[in-house]
Write a structure and sequence with these properties.
single chain, Jelly Rolls, Immunoglobulin-like, TIM Barrel, 7-stranded parallel β-sheet, 6-stranded antiparallel β-sheet, 33 strands, 17% helix, 31% strand, Glycoside hydrolase family 2 TIM barrel-domain containing protein, hydrolase
Length: 604
Amino acid sequence: MADTVYPRPQLVREHWQSLDGIWKFTFDNKREFDHPSDQIQWTHEIKVPYPPESKTSGVGDRGFHHACWYERDFDIKPEGDRVFLHFGAVDYRARVWVNGLLVVEHEGGHTPFAAEITHALKASGQQVVTVLAEDDPFDLAKPRGKQDWQLDAHSIWYPRTTGIWQTVWLERVPITYIQKLRWTPHFDGFEIGCEAMVAGPQEGELTVEVKITHDHKVLADDRYKVIGGEAHRKIALSDPGIDDSRNELLWSPERPTLLDAEVTLWQGDRILDRVRSYTALRSVAISRDRFMLNGRPYQLRLVLDQGYWDDTLMTAPSDEALRRDVELAKAMGFNGVRKHQKIENPRYLYWADKLGLMVWEEMPSAYRFSAQAVTRLVREWIEVIDRDYSHPCIIVWVPFNESWGVPNLTSMQAHRNAVEALYHMTRTLDSTRPVIGNDGWEASATDILGIHDYDANPDGLLSRYGSASQTQELFDRRRPGGRILTLDGYPHRGQPIMLTEFGGIAFSKSSNPNAKKDWGYSKVATEDDLLRNYARLLEVVNNTTIFSGYCYTQFADTFQEANGLLYADRTPKVPLEQIARATRYLRNPPPGEYTEPVVINNEK
């Protein structure tokens, strides 16, 4: 995403420089080179951050590649402060040199990393950065999400992504600086938890000033002493009391109120560092069989979003494209998305925060169980939670999907242990959000029971889930995806039940029912058929009381999959307002929730 927008939206500084653009590039499948000083043969130019498999990169090679090299010049002079080099994401293993000096190594294809490069800079200001990215296309024991291990994308898997696929940038920071911020809303006390981490020499008395404002009104402005490189405080906001006034400060999809924050690091009366950030006051929780937002039951209407584009793959074409995806999901009547098998760009989360769209964050799966696979998964998942903890839009964490990477949950204790360990570790790292241990089926440790059921017949869904009295039979005998819904020893304990994958109605302009590129769970021939089938499915799901939420498959067509509500270029297959009416349809809506007539099967 080659934009000039600040890449890290919750810790923003003034002095930074994008390194996106044209780099020298070459594949190194036989691993002929080990160091920038080798006589590397540069065969291509590539447009970073688009991966070499993408058309927009200028390379467009989707073959099997084990390694590739990048290099570019840049200008920056050491000026007595620190200079950091940041990478949004490099798939899968990266080594980075500046002027021939190794500055950082990182493993994990979906999380950011950075290195201080001050010591490696030349006084002249003319610098060179070189990157080696290694990514075995056949390695099924690494978190890879939807990246195919076959040459051509097939079934529900897509083209591979090798190397740099998120932005590269430089940042100047003071010698002593604010290294990290972490925000935790405490809804019950009308408080915001703030954790500020300070790095560098800490001489004299250091304090952190936190100023929180909304709509140009100061809500809090306090200083806290830095002890051991940290300042931890709960900041109490004035509680307006009555709900109408309270709601003006609460974050929700209907009213996405963000609180602006300015955090300043002081040494006595001298400013050392200042950053801009934001947070929000909201709570997410589980109460018996319902999902709760800000202390009230809230019906989740999610859409499955793969986060791919035809010409740029996992990298968004632009920041505006990320914003548009959020706007389109809301325009279709959804209040959230399930980002499927992808850790999305932080700029997407920023727009979801700002515009009001809830996000389920799901760890990309490995597809082979081993000690190495689990180690890799745990390490990267910890980095994911650390990166995205402070985004108010994120409401659920999902470490496993459909038993991918743990295929023998019914028979092998080690596989069960992995799911339970990741569930409890996630709840330990973040006790404020629900966690789904394994979404889809074979549930054990989980706060929500997610069911995947692609029955194309709405009456089939109605007969299976329409009566709350059938709940016990559902978990004892039914196997919607051919798998048991809960593992033995883990009966349904009253958690919310959600239909977290369903639908998958395929429609394509080709109108060829046998076309391989028109893959879907069911197919229709016309736009009218698509809207009619979608409306009937959503009527059943919205009015099935056993469900406290759902996630429809899917947001947009993705390569060979034609089961999106939008085409791959994000143009709608049927008018957005008609999709939205079907998405929101309730036979007996709560008073005031829906104000326009809803047309289902041409009836008001």
